[in-house]
Amino acid sequence: MKLAVVGKGGSGKTTTSSVIARTLARSGRAVVALDCDSNPNLGISLGVGDEETERLVSMRQALDEGEEEHANNWDTLISRYGSDGPDGVRLAVVSRIDNPEPG
Amino acid sequence: MRLAFVGKGGAGKSAIAGTFARTLARQGDKVLAIDSDPLPGLAYSLGLAIDHSPPIPDDAVIERKEGEEGPRWRLNPDVDPFDAVERWSVEAPDGVRFLQFGKISGDPRNLWRSQMAFRLIINKLPAGRWNVVGDLPGGTRQAFTGWGSWANTILIVVEPTAKSLLSGRRLANMANLDPDNPKRVMVVASKVRQDGDVEMIEKGVGLEVIATVPWDEELAEAERRQLAPIDFAPACPAVLAVESLVERLSEETVSR
């Protein structure tokens, strides 16, 4: 299953995604939760906490500033830019927060 | 006054910005309300029935030719920013002029030129001619990457949730990254329901809360019905809170 949750700001995407991810993980499935928001908040709803969410974001920023190497495959990406959340959900932050593209 | 509302999606930026712009116009100020969100936004909160005024024409910008120096997009020299606002904005109630950067319907790349034109026109608009009230898209992406540089005051709209606080803190950190373009940055507490909410927001974002907009069922109903809060519930607590905010900030406005 590869599932993306989209919608207008504030409509509940992050909350919905986190409950789906945790519920799937509780039923024994291996779940990776990708935060593709340019303002990444999924860590908070998943339950990994404020500080760990910000740590993942700074890892992602360090990549753009050239201080980190790009992962060249999925497993490296998930292990290097990810964090273990409750119920075994693996969270990774994919988007950067200061991308100048509109929208 | 050049004021931009930023904050996490759903915090109440559009409802507050729309009410703010209408209130300012009612007291006789010349108001340009701008919306740089490609999703539905400010128009309904201003009291406009439709949210798709025609986009700025593609030929308002010129693309850099192969081998040329300089930025990729320039404003067409035939386009004067002040005239452009007069020509391409639409009239909203109370005499507010409304300009938006185009709404996505189909391929978003179709709007790229219109959006660049919008950005150049707003950034080059001469100071002191309009009060500009801007509603920026939710999140951190647009706010301080060239799309909010026209503003001299940033109001971060924050509701009492952990995600909104985190977004507010990020926006507060990003607001003054450009030392050549210092901005006044303040927080508007939104959807406040209980004791301690304002303190939580102030502590979480690390900036002064200059206005508190309470959770208001009538405002929510206006949003459900696609009506401007100031028309649907002119005396509801949320609208009154925005009116006091206008009063607090209106020492530096441009009159008509």
Keywords:
heterodimer; A: alpha+beta; 3-stranded mixed β-sheet; 3 strands; disordered C terminus; B: 256 residues; alpha/beta; Rossmann fold; 8-stranded mixed β-sheet; two-stranded antiparallel sheet
Q: Can you give a write-up of this model?
A:
The complex is a heterodimer of chains A (103) and B (256). Chain A is an alpha+beta fold and 103 residues long. Chain A contains 4 helices and 3 strands, in the order αβαααββ. Chain A has one domain (13-93). In chain A, strands 1-3-2 form a 3-stranded mixed beta sheet. The termini of chain A are far apart. The model of chain A is unreliable at 99-103 (pLDDT under 50). By secondary structure, chain B is of the alpha/beta class. Chain B has a single domain (2-252), classed as Rossmann fold, CATH 3.40.50. Chain B is 34% helix and 19% strand. Chain B has 9 helices and 10 strands. Chain B has helices spanning 13-26, 42-46, 81-88, 112-124, 162-175, 197-205, 217-224, 229-232, 237-249; strands at residues 2-7, 31-35, 61-63, 73-75, 90-91, 97-100, 131-135, 153-158, 184-192, 209-214. In chain B, the strands form 2 sheets. Chain B has an 8-stranded mixed beta sheet, with helices on both faces. In chain B, 52% of the residues are buried. The interface between A and B is medium-sized, with 21 and 30 residues.
Set out the fold topology:
The complex is a heterodimer of chains A (103) and B (256).
Chain A: H1 13-26, E1 32-35, H2 42-46, H3 50-64, H4 74-80, E2 82-84, E3 90-93
Parallel strand pairs in A: 1-3
Antiparallel strand pairs in A: 2-3
Chain B: E1 2-7, H1 13-26, E2 31-35, H2 42-46, E3 61-63, E4 73-75, H3 81-88, E5 90-91, E6 97-100, H4 112-124, E7 131-135, E8 153-158, H5 162-175, E9 184-192, H6 197-205, E10 209-214, H7 217-224, H8 229-232, H9 237-249
Parallel strand pairs in B: 1-7, 1-8, 2-6, 2-7, 8-9, 9-10
Antiparallel strand pairs in B: 3-4, 5-6
